[in-house]
Design goal:
Largest sheet: 6 strands, mixed
InterPro entries: AAA+_ATPase, ABC_transporter-like_ATP-bd, ECF_ABC_transporter_ATP-bd, P-loop_NTPase
Strand order of the largest sheet: 6-7-8-3-9-10
Structural class: alpha/beta
CATH superfamily of one domain: P-loop containing nucleotide triphosphate hydrolases
Mean pLDDT: 91
GO cellular component, one term: ATP-binding cassette (ABC) transporter complex
CATH topology of one domain: Rossmann fold
Low-confidence stretches: 1-9, 11-16
Keywords: ATP-binding, Nucleotide-binding, Transport
Family: Belongs to the ABC transporter superfamily.
Shape: globular
Protein name: ABC transporter
Helix content: 25-40%
Distance between the termini: 52 Å
Strand content: 15-25%
């Protein structure tokens, strides 16, 4: 069985409440300015519905701000952001839509995992408590935990506490935490940050083998051009604006040209 086939059965879907296969993010003149006056994202109009989207750019270019607007961690200070899933249209940042968005959009923040995970005796208990707090049924929790640990290569660590994991497996646990509610899409901010080449490949394989949408910000331009990760679309950001939108290879070439031009001006 292929890696994609293994992950396509990550969770069974209940017939009475099927999860949408994909969602569409729509930004209409969306922008975000932080309280200190710093512009995180400038006026942006964009529709994202591709299966694999990468976001690249220098530090401070707006990657994290864009992802937080997509997952609802931030609300735009002007314009709007909406998520369309089936016949529903939701607004990230809206209190009334928060629960629905949490079930549709899983957030991966580098190697960050919920603080509660560090208070649990084991990662198995941490995942169980995390799901229980979100009202996942007992029988379903156990099935999900077993599958997550196996598919994300965490079974050997199941009885160990989160702080005993090495960096690579902590990154994988962050993905597992994001998958607890069986979301339709993962929004991942630098999911391989700080890993060596082997660790990066391991985590990237796990992330992109998932049978669901992924929007991922990264500095690893070599990773996004690898054919096995099947990146459909890449956005290049600079100074809070999208300056290129196209294939991964063309985006990486535009990124290299941008950096070269900046160095020449200096």
């Amino acid at each position: 069985m292929t890696a994609m086939g293994m992950f396509s059965g990550l969770f069974s879907r209940r017939v009475d409440s099927p999860r949408p296969d994909h969602v569409t993010f729509t930004l209409a003149h969306a922008a975000y300015t932080y309280e200190d006056g710093h512009t995180g994202l400038r006026d942006t109009t964009l529709t994202l519905d591709t299966r694999r989207t990468a976001v690249i750019g220098l530090n401070g270019s707006g990657k994290t701000t864009l992802l937080k607007l997509l997952d609802g961690s931030l609300s735009p200070t002007s314009g709007s952001v909406t998520i369309t899933a089936g016949d529903k249209t939701l607004q990230p940042g809206s209190r009334k839509d928060r629960k629905s968005i949490n079930r549709l959009v899983g957030c991966v923040r580098r190697e960050e995992i919920p603080n509660s995970f560090y208070r649990s005796a084991s990662i198995t208990k941490a995942l169980d408590t995390h799901m229980q707090a979100r009202h996942v049924a007992d029988s379903e929790r156990q099935a999900r935990i077993g599958t997550l640990l196996a598919q994300l290569d965490l079974s050997a660590w199941r009885d160990r506490p989160a702080d005993a994991l090495d960096s690579e497996h902590r990154h994988l646990l962050a993905i597992a935490a994001a998958l607890c509610l069986d979301p339709s899409v993962l929004v991942a901010d630098e999911p391989t940050k700080g890993l060596d080449e082997i660790g990066t490949a391991h985590v990237a394989r796990a992330l992109f083998a998932l049978d669901r949408q992924v929007v991922s910000a990264t500095h690893d331009t070599d990773m996004i051009t690898r054919p096995e990760y099947a990146i459909d679309r890449t956005l290049l950001l600079r100074d809070g604006s999208i300056v290129f939108d196209g294939s991964a290879r063309d985006a990486v070439a535009a990124y290299a040209d941008m950096i070269r031009s900046m160095r020449e001006r200096v």
